[in-house]
Amino acid sequence: AQTVTQSQPEMSVQEAETVTLSCTYDTSESDYYLFWYKQPPSRQMILVIRQEAYKQQNATENRFSVNFQKAAKSFSLKISDSQLGDAAMYFCAYRTPNTDKLIFGTGTRLQVFP
Amino acid sequence: NAGVTQTPKFRVLKTGQSMTLLCAQDMNHEYMYWYRQDPGMGLRLIHYSVGEGTTAKGEVPDGYNVSRLKKQNFLLGLESAAPSQTSVYFCASSYDLAGIAKNIQYFGAGTRLSVL
What we know:
Helix content of chain A: under 10%
Structural class of chain B: mainly beta
Radius of gyration of chain A: 14 Å
Structural class of chain A: mainly beta
Oligomer: heterodimer
């Protein structure tokens, strides 16, 4: 069975600095998708970034980028120029291509200090 | 521009009571999902539906039932609520398997349920 592990329950960063959130996963499949979702205090789950496993190029969305290491089954999220509004829970998620179910990690709470 | 709407937003039940959570989406999505979120455990899939009239079990289906009579609605029922079902419930929807851009799940704002 596929599993997703986020080993950092909490992280903190200074405003304008860079922070990296870790995620590892376990799967025997070769084709799959990975996602990072953000959950602010409002509870709304917001998609931050996604990565297709068949693509070697790391996904980037403005200040958010990933470091996807397929062989190591690692999918970390880098947030550059951190802003106060980035403070939230961040969830890593895995999705297989043959189903549409998401498997979530336990989340990392990110605090941003001014 | 509603997206995925969940009602109610909050609910308190007594053990043994029943209730139904409603999820509605206006994006013409084929797939819909119910998750529960508990502290330290992330989101876990309860049930899901791949189309009108179909439902399937997820990771933690016991104690819940679902129905998808209309494409835009996905109902989650608790027949006899238990304190272990105290949680935050999220509904999500997505399009289908055809194409990466359509594989994104969009979430509602959640329902906080307490069972006393």
